[in-house]
Amino acid sequence: MLLVLLEYMPIVNEESSKPEKLDKKDLAIIDILKNNSRETCQKIAKKVSLSNDAVGYRIKRLENLGVISGYKLKLHYPFTNHQEFILFFGLLEDNTKKIDALDSHLKKIDHVKEIMHYSDKWDTKVQLIAENIGELDELASDISDKYSNIIIDYEILTIVKDLIHKETKKCAEVEKTKLDEKDEKIIKILEKNSRESIVSIAKKLNMNADTVMYHLNKITQSGIIKKFSAIPNLNKLGLHLYTAMIIMKDFGDKEEKKLREFCETNSNNILSAHKTVGHWNVIMDISAKDQKEFQSVMQKLKMTLENSLKDYDVIMAYKEIDK
After folding, report:
1. Alpha-carbon gap, residue 167 to 58, rounded angstroms
2. What integer pLDDT is reported at residue 210 of this predicted model?
3. What are the DSSP calls for 185-248, one per residue?
4. CATH architecture designation of domain 235-318
5. What pLDDT score does 256 carry?
6. Do residues 230 and 30 make contact, with C-beta atoms less than 8 angstroms apart?
7. Domain 178-222: CATH class, spelled out
8. Tens of pLDDT along 294-311?
9. Predicted confidence (pLDDT) per residue in 158-206, tens digit
10. pLDDT exceeding 90 applies to what percent of the chain?
11. What's the rounded Cα separation, in Å, for the pair 62 and 57?
């Protein structure tokens, strides 16, 4: 039994998303909602020195502008014998219809959790879960066979460890939590909108608010829900998404500790970081306002890892495909 962290990345669309004019109060509200999308307007108002109504108005405006694209859950869920994988595809780009067909095919696969296009050697990144290597091989082979006319190369990574979030609950502890039908219905609603109010959830499920609150507290305390988070559109914040794939010369406990400390120190830029098995040992998603800021982050990373870093590749995200 593996505890899988399903984590939603920020929205990226370099093609159509332009930076919006935001002030410090807007950015502070976004930051609060990224850390806890269920924070009330009243609590946010105290933190940013605004009235409740002003906070509510600003949140609605950010949603209407698409700066906040939605509110999701980050779940720790005991998928029986499941693992998390990443597939990178290199594609022939001369046939957009076939690429669109590949995207449509990927969107229909339940195991696929995220599809991101890049403007570099690796054109598409697919994040998915599978019960084992055998099932992954079947999924990858099926995709490769059906779209062999446009897939020119691919790499598979197995995610083995989150280098940012430390586990507060062990797998066995989470497994002890038995989800009933009410729990599952509440999670299903919150997966679509983690900011949904208790009253609204109660109305949708024909429950009273106290019952919903009881079940939500139970799920949260169990460790199944890792985080309630707003999903921002990076490009509308004037940022870009880069993915660094790192090959380590040495990767023991000492190097892992250095990476964790680096991610914590540079948390404004490091969105996710995972230890992997495959061609690369670490995959890291980094946000930056421009190439100069990104290179500065990478320079600090190289200084942190020193001789432990063997090589790395970098690709820039272009567009996320809605699942």
Report:
1. 34
2. 96
3. HHHHHHHH-TT--HHHHHHHHT--HHHHHHHHHHHHHHTSEEEEEEEEBTGGGT-EEEEEEEEE
4. 2-Layer Sandwich (3.30)
5. 95
6. yes
7. mainly alpha
8. 999 999 999 999 999 999
9. 998 889 876 555 554 555 567 889 998 999 999 899 999 999 999 999 9
10. 74
11. 9
* Spatial separation of the C-alpha atoms in residues 237 and 91, rounded to whole Å: 29
Indicate the helix (H) or strand (E) that contains 61: helix 52-65
Task: Name the least confident of 9-23, 45-59, 67-81, 96-110.
Answer: 67-81
Provide the CA 317 distance to its chain's centre, in angstroms.
Answer: 13
Examine domains 80-161 and 235-318 and report if their fold is the same.
yes
Domain spans in the chain, listed from the N-terminal domain onward: 24-66, 80-161, 178-222, 235-318
Lowest mean pLDDT among 153-157, 175-179, 255-259: 175-179
Rounded Cα distance, 189 and 305, in Å: 42
Q: Is 165 helix (H, G, I), strand (E, B) or coil?
A: coil
Instruction: For tokens 């790192």, name the residue.
Output: 246
